[in-house]
Design goal:
The structure is a homodimer. In chain A, about 35% of the residues are buried. The first copy, chain A, has helices at about 5-45, 50-55, 65-70, 75-90, 95-100, 100-120, 120-135, 140-165, 175-195, 195-215; strands spanning about 170, 215. Helices cover about 80% and strands about 0% of the residues of chain A. Chain A has 10 helices and 2 strands. The interface of A and B includes residues 176, 186 and 209 of A. The structure holds a DNA duplex (30 and 30 nucleotides).
DNA sequence: GCTACTCCTTGACAGTCGTCAAGTTTTTCT
DNA sequence: AGAAAAACTTGACGACTGTCAAGGAGTAGC
């Protein structure tokens, strides 16, 4: 059996590909690792106070490595924002999938809503920070709009399913539905950080009624 | 007619008071002037990118003067935030006062809502920026909460008056009512800066229905 | 074992930041 | 007019920023 030049080059190129791919994988893995460290630093300090050296201190590397894996600071932060999206955008899907009654769906949504408020509060304040930064600096805007759209879809899946289980229809558009619940979340977050747990509890108590306001029940 | 010592000291002290008051007035006037310059700089650049030298360039003074009138940067920005409140918190009162029918009130509110969105967009993005900063830096929080409360009251005056004219009652608490309309404003602002005027127009078209959703009409 | 390459550290750069002291200009009062 | 006080400018300080070049450490290939 002869070995043609094609075979050799094919094998060689395949080998090279595999090598290259493995290198790319390693490269991407470290990029992601550093982006996660960036995300945590941002969540702790906010956009305005986050420096590259501080980010590096939250990783196991020195500050110079950031310019080996990222073009510049904007590139790094953009990648961190994308990491946020991965974490945050499928949060309620399980609730939607497993709930069999409207009451259950609504109750579990409210529970999850305030659970993540307490557990991931720093991450959430970062999201709002970055969304606002996009009002000043257009370079984040595309990513922000994309994530915002995914958040809207996520909320819509919950509310439209709730309406379905209730035998009714949503009372407002996806956009309006989203901003209403997002507004409540933002306010709850503010009072959470203020330490004003009474206001948070009140928002929690009112949330079911607000959800009902967003769907038109069947007659 | 004799001139008693009391008279003299009284006159003298009154004169001194007047002098002191005038000096305080001058001092406060310049403080306010610099706070306004700060407000405009912040609205243009955002909190993260605003420096004292940039602020001074937006005034007619040099950067050193800022430490003559303000303790430090935080003091200056806090004062600027308070200036924002003065500008922004009575915006809809005239609409409430002059409207005689529910339709008129709703229509004029919507008009004013999107008018200030377009006209004062930089100032509004600053407000949301600073409100978010207060999630990271507690030193603004008290002022932010106060302003947020005034904004809530402002919205509540509109919606409760609308319900009254309609012969109904508000369907949600002041807090929920506020965050709903504020959420819509935030979203409209984001798409305004994106240049996505279609989405803004859609939000405008939907706003009357949302307002109706927030009041329970009489049977 | 030598070379070549990837990965990472170190240290320096030019610039900007908030702050403040020293000094100049302007105003105020007698 | 002259002295005192207020108002403002200037320049400098140490610290911090993003960026990057030089070089070390470690590994894979021959």
């Amino acid at each position: 059996m002869g070995v043609t030049i094609q075979d050799v080059t094919e094998v060689a190129s395949r080998k090279q590909d595999r090598l290259a791919r493995r290198q790319v994988d390693k490269f991407d893995a470290r990029r992601t690792e550093l982006a996660v460290a960036t995300l945590h630093t941002l969540a702790e300090l906010g956009y305005a106070r986050t420096s590259l050296r501080e980010i590096a201190q939250n990783s196991e590397f020195s500050h110079g490595v950031l310019h080996y894996y990222f073009e510049d600071k904007r590139d790094l932060i953009t990648e961190a924002v994308r990491q946020y999206e991965v974490v945050c955008v499928t949060r309620y899907d399980e609730v939607v999938a497993t709930s069999t009654t409207a009451e259950q769906l609504r109750a579990e949504f409210v529970a999850m809503f305030f659970d993540t408020l307490g557990r991931d509060a720093p991450l959430h304040r970062l999201w709002y920070d970055l969304r606002n930064q996009s009002l000043f600096d257009g370079s984040f805007r595309a990513d922000v709009l994309e994530i915002d759209g995914h958040r809207q879809d996520m909320v819509w899946r919950v509310v439209s399913r709730y309406a379905e289980l209730l035998g009714g229809t949503p009372a407002a558009s996806p956009g309006t539905t989203y901003v209403t619940l997002d507004g409540i979340f933002q306010r709850a977050l503010l009072h959470h950080f203020t330490g004003n747990s009474g206001t948070v509890a009140q928002l929690r108590a009112e949330l079911p009624a607000v959800i009902d306001l967003l769907v038109t029940k069947a007659e």
